[in-house]
Design brief:
CATH class: Alpha Beta
Number of helices: 4
CATH topology: Nonspecific Lipid-transfer Protein, Chain A
CATH superfamily: SCP2 sterol-binding domain
Strand content: 25-35%
Number of strands: 5
Oligomer: single chain
Strand order of the largest sheet: 3-2-1-4-5
Low-confidence stretches: none
Order of helices and strands: HEEEEHHEH
CATH architecture: 2-Layer Sandwich
Length: about 110
């Protein structure tokens, strides 16, 4: 999978469910390492999710993972704490904000099941 495909799949997955139950602002930069490497950001602002294909230098946290592991995190099949402790996920800046992002992913998953 190349970067454009990874980005498109992520954007579709996170935005097709509509608004989520999340109050506040969260900016997460994602660096995909390995095959299809590249950077994009995900911004959540009072339940609205935006995914854009460039760096966001004012991010709350940065996630670094392979595309395979990032998609597993996004769909809930990989526990973020386990991924972090086993080295499949690296976090820069705020770990607390990364855990907050997990709540966003859970809300996306709940909206998709409706």
């Amino acid at each position: 999978m190349n970067f454009e495909e990874i980005f498109s799949k992520t954007k579709e997955y996170l935005t097709q469910c509509g608004d989520i139950d999340y109050k506040g602002h969260l900016a997460v930069e994602v660096f995909i390492k390995g095959d299809g490497s590249g950077t994009f950001y995900i911004e959540v602002n009072d339940g609205k999710i935006a995914v854009e294909p460039y760096d966001y230098h004012d991010h709350d946290c940065k996630l670094i993972a392979s595309a395979k592991n990032f998609f597993k995190l996004a769909d809930g099949s990989l526990n973020p704490v386990a991924a972090f402790t086993t080295g499949r996920l690296k976090i820069e800046r705020s770990i607390e904000k990364a855990l907050e992002f997990q709540k966003v992913l859970e809300a996306v998953g709940k909206n998709k099941k409706k």
